[in-house]
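Standup notes
- DV: blocked on the single-chain target, sequence here:
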Amino acid sequence: MKVVILGCGRLGAHLARRFDREGHSVTVIDRNSEAFARLGADFRGAMVLGTGIDEDVMRRAGIEGADAFVAVTTGDNTNAMAAEIAKLIFKVPSVVARFTDPVREDTYHTLGLMDTVSPTIMGSDRIHDILTGNASRGAKEK
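- DV (later): unblocked, structure below
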């Protein structure tokens, strides 16, 4: 699978390393060149310096022909715009955007343009489940 990831923070770098280890073709976009250090020396994918809402940067990252696009910057607005560009302009089949604001996540989820993830909602749900006994304690996903 050819994956383009926007954002090389903790989540973006972790995703990139995981997909890379699994043998997928991975390209990471970030506007800060120092962020790429999180990928480690053994990362075999590509790194593109720039902003993910710039169509030329997305083209350099290989968005045309990508199977998946993931927007995981720290900005909900940036993630929304980049995901919309990937889906509507470049017709990427699978698009996922992270939203820290649960209201924005719900709005974009309802629109159905992209798959959405909210660490705020996921964390809240997990804590609730632990405290109410609806989850196994200490369970951890890879």
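- Follow-up: The first strand starts at residue 2 and ends at 6.
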